[in-house]
Fold:
Amino acid sequence: MNLATYVLQLMSLMNLDLTLRTEIQKAVATLFNQSVEQVQLQPTNKEFEGSHTVVCFPLTKLSRKGPEETARLIGEHLIANSGIVTRYNVVKGFLNLVIADSVWASVFESVFSNPKYGSLPANGKEMMVEYSSPNTNKPLHLGHLRNNFLGYSVAEIFKANGYKVHKVQIINDRGIHICKSMAAWQLYGNGETPDRAGVKGDKLVGKYYVEFDRNYKAQVQELIAQGVPEADAEKKAPIMKLAVEMLQRWEAKDEEIYSLWKTMNSWVYEGFDATYKRMGVDFEKLYYESNTYLLGKDEVLRGLERGVFFKKEDGSVWVDLTAEGLDQKVLLRSDGTSVYMTQDIGTAILRFLDFPKIEGQVYTVGNEQEYHFKVLFQILKKLGFAWAEKCYHLSYGMVDLPSGKMKSREGTVVDADDLMQEMVDDAEKQTRELGKIEDSSEEEIKALAEMIGLGALKFFLLKVDPKKRMLFDPNESIQLQGHTGPFIQYTHARIRSILRKAASMNISPAVENIIALEPAERELIFQLNNYTNKLQEAAREYSPAVIANFTYDLAKEYNQFYQSIPIFNEADPAKLKFRVALSKAVADLLKKSMSLLGIQVPEKM
RNA sequence: GGUCUCGUAGCUCAAUUGGAUAGAGCAGCUGCCUUCUAAGCAGCAGGUUGCUGGUUCGAUUCCAGCCGGGAUCACCA
Structure:
């Protein structure tokens, strides 16, 4: 067996990058009698020949030679011994390597012949991802869309990395906020229901929340005009007194209030369910704050006994995190009741009891709560839970408007349902204008518009690094061309069209006798091969943006290939089959990676 | 004020985690549909990476100090 054959067999077991790294390590060992652990390998800049570049500056210490000489020696050695490098060039300290086309072909073969390419094998680990978790007094808005798409996508990314994932959310169904809506509804609602009003339940409850605010402000102003100090006025406004009283009666399980609360929450849930359905997100289990808000108290008291926490003179219980660089934080009020943090401690513990095999939790919550989660994880650690180390706050930036932050009180909130509808309407309008869908039914056009509109929206929100704030301009509709979801969907549809044509011509995709490749083909194989790295990186960084940008690059690359090489003009049957196979592999991977973003791709568009 | 975070082309975002001449899209300009879908492709133009220093062979990236946004520092959730 010659070297090349041996290497090709090896390729099916190892990936190309790993093989290259090993070969470089061997080269360094032989040439300089030294060992390197980390070889700096990066993609070659487009302007130079080659696909992989070894950064040789760090190796000069081992070689005791200049960077260019070091690069040249390694290059020569790889050509003589590796069996996969055919040429090289050196620019400054950068060693650019040209990989043999036969190797690329075999890399592609292993991708193409693997029906599960796109997902890593199960690793036996379990993860929990919490996302959404809205309050039940207002409808979902643009910020929630980012949250939901992020959480859903991160969960899917972990699944593709081999984890078993549990998606959950906690519903903040309790507290003064919902009592405000209840108070306003009782005062001004005249028995209005979603059915009677013809609006979604969450919208109706949201309307009364706004109504509360309006009346409350008016009442406060009136009291101030009567000479009441502002602080007093805020407490004495009759509508606020009603809401506070309702909260107390709710906590005492007063039947009338409890039933009103249940009714109004059920309206909200129905509304949310419709929105979630359209968003395409789902949850395995819902936690309700009304069930869990007392849970943390026992754990805090136990911690107090063990000396993890301390009590102040007024009876309130605190944790001291000054040694960790944080502050002191109250965990139980002087009257013995729980605070937000107390609940979160309880809920975290409950979830590990419900799902004993999870190794950690991901909390998809806005970056305004970074401090809260730092404290929470420190407390869990202090209580001795080993899994506290594996809890992660998936902190994302706000979605800002050109005018600044969205504010419900100023009416600048971008409603989730409205925005989705606008996107779908835009997509439908453009689909009809382009007129490529003559043979489609109305139903199919609607379904396609839904796919494109939501694809554009999701991609728009997910392509940005989650950690960063992002800007949304409601006056400029989200693009359907360029660096967008529809661009990728279009590329997929285009490929499917090619595959349909190939099938009708009885051309079956295959990889056989491939000796030489076009640059565009090599580039595509490179991208396909790089997917696994990106998938792992996306999980490591908790970042759907990594997948979104990879997918865009792959589609972009394919379109260049598509433009430069007319597939069916090819006379050589082996090349023809290979190009169909390459197209199929790209389409399959586009579909797979888009699904990690929660975006579907069409057969035609 | 303390802590955290961000500042890249007119606009929205990238940059393989310290690597080469900082890349895409949109907007603007120029080409390409009688050949697989023009929601596409090719090209032009657009940059003192907020500023000043430092570390390094090499800095958008790390450090320090300014300038400018944002968040947070509740017995609210």
Residues 3-99 of chain A form a domain with the Gyrase A; domain 2 fold (CATH 3.30.1360.70). The radius of gyration of chain A is 30 Å. The first strand of chain A starts at residue 41 and ends at 43. Residues 201-225 of chain A form the longest helix (25 residues).
